[in-house]
Amino acid sequence: LSRAAAAAGSACSAGGAKHRPRDRAGSPAPGDLLQTSVEAEEPDAAAARRERRCPREGTVLLFPGQGSQFVGMCRGLQRYPGVRDMYRLAEKVLGYDLLSLCLEGPRDALDRTQHCQPAVFVASLAAVEKLNHLQPEVVERCVAAAGYSVGEFAALVFAGALGFAEALYAVKVRAEAMQKASEAVPSGMLSVVGRREANYKFACLEARKHCESLGIENPVCTVSNYLFPDSRVIAGHLQALEFLQENARKYYFKRAKMLPVSGAFHTRLMEPAVEPLAEVLKSIEIQKPLLCVYSNVDGKKYMHSKHIQKLLVKQVVSPVLWEQTMHSVYERKQGTEFPYTYEVGPGNQLGAILKQCNLKAWKQYKHVDALEDEEELFLLFFMLWGCIIIGCVHMWMEVTFPPVVQCHIGCAKLHKKCSLEKKA
């Protein structure tokens, strides 16, 4: 992955100076996948890489977040050596068999915050490995990346800002702290699609007043995710969310649906998770990304390592500005072509959101699932069984009709000898 990121580190948006790949001394990297030493390029190749590209030639990678996981993800991807290395290292870092949990479940265990965040993180990078195997030029031409919530960690690993093992450990600490914080207060998240006249801030204010009338001190109810125009996720105390559901028509909500999550993520109810994550990030070596990575906190590009450290912590208690991030990534002059976009990881929710944010950009969108394509698996299965059947038939003929088989082999050798003599 770091080799791919180094190759991709030519520019942000249209082009720019190529960053030199950096070594990560002491980082436990799994084999070839996470090597950080890259052979020097030829001068001509380096110069060519610095040239400004046509926008269509660049690619953008999007990394999904919590909620995209499913039992069975990463099935079939173990045939890629890099994926096997990642899951072997993940088991050492996490202390449990993440691959078995992803493949076999149970679903309740996989959906727990402390498990699904590491699972989505590793599965997304496994999808990158798959993409790099099938279409390496897509990875090499990547000029920008963005990740939704925990997906931001995967984007930063791909961009060379974080080491895989270090980032996975940070995700582990983050997930466990957020799980603990969510269990402290009955809270949740409400997905809302509103009409144009919907006033989300006013609705949240009235929901908080309702909670105060129930005796809840300092209640929380606020927008935690900006998805696309007229779509928000509101998070906070359960009583506040239930109030909004019951009064959906009053606040011009076309749809209000509770999400299957355990807490009010990206609100101040997650403050207990801030310190543990901050302590871990202080001990991790963070470097400037080799390509543009956009932050959920402000929708802008990360500038340097301290910036990354600060905003990754702030992200836990700040709303995810995904709609604003999509505008930043795809902002361009009128008439300029849009880059090819690849969502790498389980689910295709980010593609659906992109379609609502920017239809023209979505037309260049593709999904690389954390699962082997069914057609490819069927072909491999068919070829394998074909070889087995042919071998079994040949063995059966040798045992049942040995003279016939020997005669056939002898005739074939005689025919070959006669052909050679004829040519001579």
UniProtKB/TrEMBL annotation:
Residues 62-375 form the Malonyl-CoA:ACP transacylase (MAT) domain. Its EC number is 2.3.1.39. The keyword Magnesium does not apply. It is found in: Mitochondrion. It catalyses: holo-[ACP] + malonyl-CoA = malonyl-[ACP] + CoA. Gene3D superfamilies: Malonyl-CoA ACP transacylase, ACP-binding, Malonyl-Coenzyme A Acyl Carrier Protein, domain 2. It comes from the Eukaryota. Its main location: mitochondrion. This is Malonyl-CoA-acyl carrier protein transacylase, mitochondrial. It comes from Corvus moneduloides (New Caledonian crow). The lineage of its organism: Eukaryota, Metazoa, Chordata, Craniata, Vertebrata. The gene is MCAT.
